[in-house]
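Fold it.
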Amino acid sequence: MSASVLFDAPGPKAVARHRTYSIVSILVLVALVAFAVWRLYDRDQLDYALWEPFVTPKYLEFILVDGLLQTLKMAFFSIIFAVVIGLVLGIGKLSDRGWIRWPAWLVVEFFRAAPVLLLMVFAFFLLSIGNGPLSPFWCVVIALTLYNGAVLAEVFRAGINAVPQGQSEAAYAIGMRKSQVMTTVLLPQGVKIMLPSIISQMVVALKDTSLGYYITAPGLTAVGKPLYLEFGNQVPTAIVITGIYVTINLILTWIATVLQKRLVGEKKMLDVPMVGDAQSGRAV
């Protein structure tokens, strides 16, 4: 039977009802979009003069170089550092030694609960304001690294624990040390389980770079202010900046989906059983 015993296939009435719900939802969404466009038109927010900066090469370069590129750089450094810190803290929480496990637990729980904006403000006043050694750019990176590193530590810990226990038991049975079991057996298998959560956290890190505007850090939100101050186009600027964020996040999600499907496909190929020839012992 192809149907799952845990799920009843919908009947004709349920299928028709779901189709009706879908049509109504689409109509409501279209109506909301139409209402938003009408409000923009009614408030003269669709005038070409307000949108002209976003098709002017000089301002486009300003948005892409001073805004998007800086945002991507902050997100890139934050994600790289957060993955490293998250991996160290996640493994630390699994340690058999209490003097490693409990400090790792304390760091993870503290920074996972701390608001990102407050971490940015604290780093800014501590390391940047006045004659501080770091720029607001790196204050944003530090705050995002600490927060996302703490979250990813839990992701790594959960992913490692999700690997079937028999895998580690088999590795210990052939004489592997715990460090070898972790790096050779558990982590490679756990990454496939963790990948969706890791990518989701990357999207969060990319979006949270917008909070750097509060501490005068560069980025997409920072380049929006001089534009709308010069042209008085707050709403078009917000729409364009939001559209760029959404586009980048969709691209990142698409890459993650392709990567995950490829990893799952490789795993299925490796899991295909070999049919042995009983006489010759060869796989056929």
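The domain at 48-270 is CATH 1.10.3720.10 (MetI-like fold).
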